[in-house]
Amino acid sequence: MSAQDNTAARLKAIVQVLAEEPGTPVKGSDVLAAAVARMPLSAWESEVLSGGVARGVKRLSAATATLVKEGLILKGRTGWTITEEGSRYAAAPGAVALAGNFGHRLGAEDWAPAADQVQMAYSPVSQSWELTAQLPAGTYEYKVAIDRSWEENYGAFGVSNGANHVLQHDGGVVTFRYDHRSKDVEVTVLDGALV
Description:
Oligomer: single chain
Organism: Arthrobacter parietis
Domain Amylopullulanase X25: 96-184
Protein name: Amylopullulanase X25 domain-containing protein
CATH topology of the largest domain: Immunoglobulin-like
Shape: elongated
Helix content: 25-40%
Radius of gyration: 19 Å
Pfam families: X25_BaPul_like (PF22058)
Structural class: alpha+beta
CATH superfamily of the largest domain: Immunoglobulins
């Protein structure tokens, strides 16, 4: 994992730590320490900078501004707390993959939920996971796989272990959006039409 990926994982850990203490302010330094305990620093991140703080902790501390901006946590004099939106985010899966017969088009193997190339990115604005890809014309089948394995997966209409989603695509840019509440996928092609 890159330093950026590590920081993103630790930000998710911060929200999860605060979700374990809903309504109770927790000292920021304690929250940061708990996040680092769940996702230890690499050798590079462990280097202590001139201020006496490890590089990874300094990066994480600065990155928490994103959590405040997105409305997931609040920082106050008495400590940090989680918001209602943050609680929903904390309950969300750590990784969501769109695994299907187009994996090779994205630089991965087909039907490989652990591949980085098929991981969807979470959007706090839409509260969904998104993946945009340029695909040639064809028929594509896929499922959503949670946390990089097939143990928890959703097919058409959000059915657990259900039939594959099927997309008849004329070619071009397509965006997939997965909503963990409905467990279903919405597809938008470049011209804005929903599939």
